TrEMBL record:
Record field: transmembrane: none
Protein species of origin: Corynebacterium provencense
Annotated Aminoglycoside phosphotransferase domain residues: 117-284
InterPro entries listed in its UniProt record: Aminoglycoside_PTrfase, Kinase-like_dom_sf
Signal sequence region: none
Record protein name field: Aminoglycoside phosphotransferase domain-containing protein
UniProt cross-references to Gene3D superfamilies, sorted A to Z: 3.90.1200.10
A Pfam family that the UniProt record links to this protein: APH
SUPFAM superfamilies the record matches: Protein kinase-like (PK-like) (SSF56112)
Domain of life: Bacteria
Length: 417
């Protein structure tokens, strides 16, 4: 890992080249970082060329030149940089995250505006004050909806920025889409992992799973989404700020909503939202996006979309927990005997997965209870029966996970510790 002084020198050079002058960065504060990354906050000595009084510097680890991992890592960094470049163009009230001030793909460094010192949702969602949690979740729902409305027609611009960066850094344009999350393939991997563990999967769940993959391409509800939401990367200050765009892109917006009500898959720092909290969040989000996507007013359509997305997240999160990445694993759909078993997952991963499964059980149970006869027959399918079968499947899977010592992370369980 590079030293703090080296990273500050690199950032100073980038900012000077971008804005002019010779900015001075002082008082570095280590904000932590994943793996070998270094994330710093530094103060900026006042100068006429740069308005910011503090910046955040993200230094990614170096990779061996000319290797496949380097090409993949550069593509990943380009996607993150493009996400910031794209959101920089949005009005400040709709901008979801910090401003990109400077970057260098070759040096693997990004300099961002400082989003401040608000409170993360990882802290907010473990509070005992239900009113404060509900208020924060409403703000999160509205912020997510405003961002999606503001970017509803921006996919072509995002793709153009992506292609420019690929051309600039000598990457094949044919690989532009390869960094995107292949939901269909990840869902298939999740199904494979369950089947390899001897879990019986009813047709209703398989149908929802297949639809989860199809929605990413044919859904009319498409906009810019962070996708990989985690509570420690969402901050509440004067407004809601999203801090991580590593997997951002244009996708079905309902998946972001499902990610929140699923308890943020692959995160165990916060408990699953209860039903009232989930409804507060969904209603706040829907109130923002209804002007562009009036179909969210249709309870039947929205329930179907959320059920589909929740099952999609359940299976994707299982694949992520098992393989450690949102990238598709080559050959993962051809397991060897006994190679893929739930009991091979660490206890914390099993508890995380159980929490996501519990969100499916709750949602399907409520949907089956509230479905009307008109809902059940309007599309020629047994909608009410499908929700019931999904709820029974989730209950059965939870029993299997409980045998392995895994129970959902719920608020009542958090209180009992």
């Amino acid at each position: 890992m590079l030293s703090t002084d080296t990273v500050l020198d690199r950032a100073t050079h980038l900012l000077g080249r971008r804005f002019g002058g010779t900015p001075e960065l002082t008082h570095p504060e280590d904000l932590g970082g994943s793996s070998d990354s270094l994330v710093l906050r530094a103060k900026v000595t006042p100068n006429p060329f740069l308005q910011q009084r503090s910046v955040v510097i993200k230094q990614l680890p170096a990779l061996a030149e000319g290797t496949p991992p380097e090409a993949e890592a550069n593509a990943a960094m380009i996607r993150e940089v493009v996400a910031y470049q794209y959101t920089n163009t949005l009005p400040s009230e709709n901008r979801p995250g910090p401003l990109l001030l400077a970057h260098d793909i070759d040096e693997r460094i990004i300099v961002l505006s400082d989003a401040g010192t608000g409170e993360s949702f990882a802290d907010i969602l473990v509070r005992e004050d239900a009113a404060q949690r509900a208020s924060a979740l409403r703000k999160l729902g509205r912020a997510l909806g405003r961002m999606q409305v503001a970017t509803a027609d921006g996919e072509e611009s995002f793709d153009t920025l992506n292609r420019r960066q690929y051309t600039r850094h000598g990457l094949p344009l044919g690989q532009v889409g390869e960094r995107d999350v292949d939901v269909a393939a990840l869902v298939t991997q999740g199904l494979d992992l369950l089947e390899g563990s001897g879990v019986e999967i009813p047709d209703a769940v398989v149908d929802f799973a297949r639809e989860a993959g199809h929605r990413q391409q044919r859904s009319s509800l498409r906009a810019f989404t962070p996708f990989d939401l985690t509570p420690d990367n969402i901050m509440l200050s004067d407004q809601v700020v999203f801090l991580d765009f590593e997997w951002a892109g244009f996708r079905d917006i309902v998946f972001d909503v499902a990610c929140v009500i699923a308890g943020f898959p692959h995160d165990i720092s916060t408990p699953l939202l209860d039903e009232d909290e989930a409804n507060e969040f969904i209603d706040a989000w829907a109130s923002e996006v209804v002007s562009v996507w009036p179909e969210v007013r249709d309870h039947h359509q929205l329930t179907e979309a959320l059920m589909t997305s929740l099952i999609g997240w359940t299976l994707m999160s299982l694949s992520l927990l098992y393989h450690g990445t949102l990238a598709v694993i080559a050959g993962a759909d051809t397991p060897t005997d006994g190679a893929r078993q739930l009991d091979r997952l660490p206890e914390t991963h099993l508890a995380d997965f159980a929490t996501t499964v519990e969100s499916v059980r709750r949602f399907a149970t409520t949907a089956a209870t509230s479905a009307t006869g008109a809902d059940a027959g309007r599309d020629g399918s047994d909608t009410l029966g499908r929700y019931t079968r999904v709820a029974l499947f989730a209950s059965s899977l939870l029993e299997r996970l409980a045998e392995l010592g895994a129970v959902p992370q719920t608020r009542s369980r958090l209180r009992s510790r």
